[in-house]
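Annex B, item 7. Sequence and structure tokens for protein A, then protein B.
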Amino acid sequence: MLTFQKYSLGALQTNAYVVVNAERTHAVVIDPGTPDGALMRKLDGLKVEAILLTHAHFDHIGGVEAVREKYGCPVYVHAAEKDWLSDAGKNGSSRWADVTPPIAGRGPDHLLAGGDELDFLGEKFRVLHTPGHSPGSVGFLIGDLLFSGDALFRRSVGRTDLPGGSQDQLFKSIREKLYTLPDDVLVLPGHGPETTIGEERRDNPFVR
């Protein structure tokens, strides 16, 4: 059975997740927003199989290079944001000088598409393309765990006023890709507390 640890990092309190296999030998990192010491210590002694990005806004990618360099693991991001890791303008870091220095690292090692199934930690990681917050936003579904990025939050949704955002597209993504999942799927968002699909389908005031 997989386990996970959440780390709320940086000025925007972005949720990074370390997902570990049942044997506690291998890990996957989702959205390392900063090179956080506690997160890095969690990885020590583990084989890091991949860094998975729900999208490439600066607050989700600030720790990518530190993790990739230390653990030699590949980075995955959706093809629509393939050049965002290396472009401070596209990932937004150049526009938020009071929050972060410009972030311009290496590009991704692998590109994602909706419908992909990735084999990590002895499990299937299903890729759900959920554009709207950003063009390449994805969720990662592993059994009854959904790492939703900034698409769906507890009683809220991701902002759509950034470049490439679209409210209509986001609402469509939530209704057609996320609300069709079983009620008991645990939603682990990019910011804030966890929730479930059933709760959000019933109580989210933005998308019913």
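Protein B:
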Amino acid sequence: MLALGHGSFGEGLSHLFTATPEKFNAIGNNHDVVPFGAALTGLILVNFYYWGTDQSIIQRALAAKNLKEGQKGVMLAGFFKVLTPIVVCIPGIIAFQLLGSKTTNPDLMYTQLVNKVLPAPLVGFFAAVMFGSVLSVFNGVINSTATLFALNVYEPLFGKGKTDQEIVRNGKRFGFLLGIVSMFIAPLIMYAPDGLFQYVQVVSGFFNVPIFTVIFMGYVTKRVPAIAAKISLVFFVGTYAVLQLIIKPEMSFLYQEAILFVISCAMMLVIGKMKPRETPYVMPINNLVEIEPWEHRYEAGGFIIFMVFAAYILFSKLGFAGANGFTAMTALWLLIAAVVSFAGVLYFKKRDKVAESPVTAAVKGTQDVRVK
């Protein structure tokens, strides 16, 4: 802000919101990389996969000592996630206003901004902070990959007669090898045509939405057989590979993932209709931890939903991107969003009073069987 305002924080803040108001509009942007329609289709599927099924993320929630603490952690993570526009997009807008078109590589924008605004002694400190953040994510991915390899590859194929310690040891060896290989591959990503972030998103499409599609069908159906999931995975990954590597259509990869998601779900439903499971699938419950839910989960969730509504209101022509900026109409829309969110909280709390939680009922049923 001081750099924008030439030494004045107030002038810098005013300049941020008035110099390029169009940069604050998150709605209706038909950008080539992420069209707004794709954000409401394929991008939602990517986020469902990442935040709901990706091992490197959900292992943190699965490690909670009980359901209550797990729900608290998920809500806290959701709260910080909604702040992403502030900690990611705002510095990007500041960089654009300070640096303009001096750089064509978006991956270099943040480092140039840091070098411009920070005193020289703090640049090294900031680099250390960034390096620590990168290592944290890298360690999480390596750890989750080693876990998946040990439990889903090594143990079923080579784990007969092996102790848990041996299985864990071989998982660690695989993680170490993966880390070494990734160190040699990582420098090549600098040649990605649309930058690092976009490259990662496109490549992730080979596994994120295909895996989520199978898990999604597992949640909503109980009769679809395993062969349907295998056929769906082969079709999804194969078709996506042809689109990305051979045909290379102008359509956003997010639209492609959304279309393939619908087709794959339809394929699994058809196969499930033609050759269903003999018995409906029942999720096993092991009673390893307490599953008493957090009593304030709906209030926390309602507040986070309000934050999402507020973000789209503020970062649109109703808010900071409008001709007059924040107005009384903006405040009215925020009030409507708050009412809708609060109504949702009341609905779910009332529903819980009428009907018992399915998970709790399942556990009680398991306990009743054990007692009998």
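Comment on protein B: The mean pLDDT is 88.
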